Amino acid sequence: MYFRAQNHSSFGLFKKATTFATCKIYIIKMEKLIKNISVDCVIFGFNSKTLQVLLTERILKDEKTGEILISDYTLQGHHVLVGENLDDAARRVLKEKTGLDNIYLEQYYTFGNVNRISNPKDQLWVRTRYPEISDHVISVGYFSLVNSALVKPDHGHEFTQWFPVEELPPLAFDHETIIQKALEALRFKLWREPIGFELLPEKFTLTQLQSLYEAVLGIKLDRRNFRKKVSQMKHIILMDDHKKRSSPNNPQNYFFSREVYEKTRKARLDFTI
Amino acid sequence: MYFRAQNHSSFGLFKKATTFATCKIYIIKMEKLIKNISVDCVIFGFNSKTLQVLLTERILKDEKTGEILISDYTLQGHHVLVGENLDDAARRVLKEKTGLDNIYLEQYYTFGNVNRISNPKDQLWVRTRYPEISDHVISVGYFSLVNSALVKPDHGHEFTQWFPVEELPPLAFDHETIIQKALEALRFKLWREPIGFELLPEKFTLTQLQSLYEAVLGIKLDRRNFRKKVSQMKHIILMDDHKKRSSPNNPQNYFFSREVYEKTRKARLDFTI
DNA sequence: CCAAAAGTGTTTATCATACACCCATGC
DNA sequence: GCATGGGTGTATGATAAACACTTTTGG
User: What percent of chain A has a predicted confidence (pLDDT) above 90?
Assistant: First the structure.
């Protein structure tokens, strides 16, 4: 159902190209991209309080007057390259925008309405920056979960930052829809599968874990019940940190074992008819 | 999360075209299709015993010798038309292949590997029948659930029939993968949401309903426990058929009310950490 | 008369839910 | 010394799981 975003791309040309100067990369991309298919990555992070999304500023000024024509934000996305697998395109975007390999990445929906880039601002942007792009672009949505401490928001040339999912700035194209749908997909999955760990450091405390579930699922949980539940899950394992005793500044650390999870998961037949 | 496949397409040109002669439709399609984007519909049906998929035969003979070069099956699919929304393309395919409007349809995954049509047989087929098609076709997968009694398998010109999902014939392209993934998506969803009714007639018996869950989810259920569970679900409603008494040949009919479901669904916080 | 399907209740075990107090630390 | 966050147990109610016999009908 999901895969790790490792950069073992089958697209040799691009890999080689990255060893050249930056302008060279740019030219290669422009020549080789598929005009009507793109990927958009909704990159989720968690700052111990709220769920966040990584967004990049989009600014367009009038060349003569300097008037600001567009000022909003976009997701991390790019057109698929000729000869590139869809998943590799998503991995490539992630690697470029966050510098990270091997992070949780999952395709969740494809956006293919005819009018998704027909807004006047978006038309202006596309015609100015990407004149060779098709009018009808299909975009394949991926969401990825990262430990946001690992992402330096200023990685690229563009101005990129985290926004709480509850307080999104104005967004380009249909990116608001894309984010909402990603959020639904993330929530739906988090109810059934242990993917929350992807948003946390390897070592985490139960308080962190509980906050994560509360923030992402939008629910309130009782601390004792949560901890009781965790203690039954064999795949959430107490680290032996050789600490004497837990205290507010010295809480106990846990880690998640997917191997144990796969082996011990129960099949309780609790379904909705 | 899903939508009904009604044919309120925003693609005026095609709608008008269907009123012309068949050859005309063909020409319009060939001229106006997007060469690298298609939709594939995995149409599931249920015959009171097994879950089935609707497949169409693909045959290619050598023009001179008559030798059979290809003989296998494909899903119902087609390229997206210029100016057509993705969802409308899926609805169009469904309408063409089953004659049905207003059936359950859900997009579940997009298949974009470079090599998905690179098998020699598939290359031969594509070059013979659709020479103008791109080498790298992205296909958006939809699954739909129909009451299979409503589908006359010979609807189109092609030879189309139902196959049990456990006994699939040889399949074209990556259609086996596409079906497996559709099955996963269907199962995953059936655990959490009441979509099984879409595979049954409006009136159904509890035995039919239970068989459906057993067949699709691949589990065995206790009849008494199942019926107890159903009796707690207010959205599964006994029909007042004015029958005296239920018996083996005269079982009681039920129907499903989505309205009641939406109003009475419980939010039990039962999640996996 | 018998095979095949419809219908029905009780007990047990598991799990979600609700709820309150003590402790260690940094400020 | 106090505010903050970490840690802990018990009682109740809901529901999943296990389990067997009777009835009706068509062949």
Answer: 67
